[in-house]
Amino acid sequence: MEIRTFQESDRSAVVTLWRRCELVRPQNDPDSDIDLKMSFQPELFLVGVDEGSVIGTVMGGYEGHRGWINYLAVDPDRQSVGLGATLMEYAEAKLRELGCVKINLQVRSSNEKVLGFYRAIGYLEDDVISMGKRLS
């Protein structure tokens, strides 16, 4: 798998992958999320490509205090062979280069498979309550 930054020509394949991985929710328009990311730190929007096909994504962000990971996705037919871990290692390295010392991410509490994945690559549960407020 080659990891590179997102290109506009990847958009359709990325949205399709996110839908296949059940990352898209009614309140999240994937095209709007891509547009927003491309306006801020687009170099942290990464895709994994194999033989010309997008098979993975990870979207990182850093605001000077903490890093964040969003939209980690691996083609469901290619999961459990280390591609997700490879994408995360790459994103972590990019964030580390920016001075990031801690990464946060959010996982739905019911998603045991994904929680197990993150635990396996060294992520721990913080004793916090995640809060949010939609501004749009």
Structural class by helix and strand composition: alpha+beta
Provide the helix percentage.
Answer: 25-40%
Rg over CA atoms, rounded to whole Å, is: 14 Å
Number of strands: 5
Alpha plus pi helix count: 4
Estimate what percentage of residues fall within beta strands.
Answer: 15-25%
Main sheet: strand order? 1-2-3-4-5
Terminal residue distance? 36 Å
Apparent shape: globular
Oligomer: single chain
Largest sheet: 5 strands, mixed
Task: Give the overall pLDDT as a whole number.
Answer: 96
Describe this structure in words.
The chain is an alpha+beta fold. Helices cover 32% and strands 23% of the residues. It has helices at residues 11-20, 30-38, 83-97, 112-120; strands spanning 2-5, 45-50, 53-62, 67-74, 103-105. A hairpin with a 4-residue loop joins strand 3 (53-62) and strand 4. The longest helix has 15 residues, at 83-97. It is globular, with a radius of gyration of 14 Å. The N and C termini lie far apart (36 Å). The model has no long low-confidence stretch (mean pLDDT 96).
In short:
With 136 residues, the chain is α+β, with helices and mostly antiparallel strands. It has helices at residues 11-20, 30-38, 83-97, 112-120; strands spanning 2-5, 45-50, 53-62, 67-74, 103-105.
Q: What descriptors fit this protein?
A:
alpha+beta, globular, Acyl_CoA_acyltransferase, five-stranded mixed beta sheet, GNAT family acetyltransferase, 136 residues
